[in-house]
Amino acid sequence: MAGTEVIKPKQERSRMRVTALLDAAEELVEELGVEGFAMSEVARRAGAAHGSLYRYFASREALLAALHERQLSQLEAAVVQASQKLGLKQAAPTPAEFLDVFLDPLRDFLARNRSYRLLRVGMPGAWQAASSEAELDARVVDELARALRKLVPGLEESRRVLAATLLLSLTDSTIIIEHRPEVQREGRRVLELYLEDLVSNVSCEPSRTGGTTS
Questions:
Q1: Strand-pair partners of 57
Q2: pLDDT by residue (tens digit) across 16-36?
Q3: What local confidence, expressed as pLDDT, does residue 157 receive?
Q4: Number of C-beta neighbours around residue 57 at 10 A
Q5: pTM of the prediction?
Q6: C-alpha to C-alpha distance for 60 and 105, rounded to whole angstroms
Q7: Which of 37-41, 131-135, 174-178, 203-207 has the highest mean pLDDT?
Q8: Would you state the torsion angle of the CA atoms of residues 182, 97, 137, 68, taken in this order, to the nearest 10 degrees?
Q9: Alpha carbon of 74 to those of 70, 109, 110: distances in Å?
Q10: For labeling, which of 29, 34, 86, 138 is most exposed (least CB within 10 Å)?
């Protein structure tokens, strides 16, 4: 898309400069939001010449999109790490343990990165990294569904995917809408109750042979 081109530097010095520019952009978005974002201020905070900023980012939109892409990569890494940690557990986790291992790091990331929330809800649709965001959501849902297999072994695949989608949506929505600790705790309790109900219902469902699972 015109005006959103990002130059990916190959030299270490240039990569460090891009990192500094993205760090400054992130700081500025957190302070002023997307509407108050200005390229000149990014350059000033990063200690870069205004013209050099455009060597790496063709426009304001390109810089914000690059920042959002970096955050998406960080978020995915956190999710994958949590999934791997959960997979190392020998016994099936309780719903509370599942949330501790898998969802709490996700919530922590979203709580720490206010600029991620602002970019997600405030980037103009014409240049928002919608495809990247959709791809990330799909990968996170896939990881969540895989992790739910450990929590609820008897849950059929289609319901695991549905449950994973719901968990991700509830977690994301709670973070974006409300930041007070007491509301966060209540949101976590809602998720825990949902998982407890899921485990309980599946354990009581008739098995394929007509009996009940233990």
A1: 6
A2: 999 999 999 999 999 988 888
A3: 92
A4: 24
A5: 0.72
A6: 30
A7: 37-41
A8: 60
A9: 6, 9, 11
A10: 138
Please tell me the distance from the alpha carbon of residue 112 to that of residue 130, in angstroms, as a whole number: 22
CA dihedral of residues 70, 106, 161, 157 (deg, nearest 10): 110
Residue 10: pLDDT band by 50, 70, 90 thresholds?
low
Mark out the alpha helices in the chain (DSSP H runs): 12-32, 39-46, 50-56, 60-87, 95-98, 104-112, 114-122, 130-151, 157-177, 181-204
> Would you state the structure tokens that stand for residue 168, as one six-digit string?
């991700």
Question: Which residues touch 194 (CB under 8 Å, ≥6 apart)?
Answer: 166, 167, 170
- Amino acid in the structure at residue 196: E
Q: What is the DSSP string of 23-68?
A: HHHHHHHHHHTTTT--HHHHHHHHT--HHHHHHHBSSHHHHHHHHH
3-class DSSP state for residue 6?
strand
Q: Which residue has the higher pLDDT, 107 or 196?
A: 196
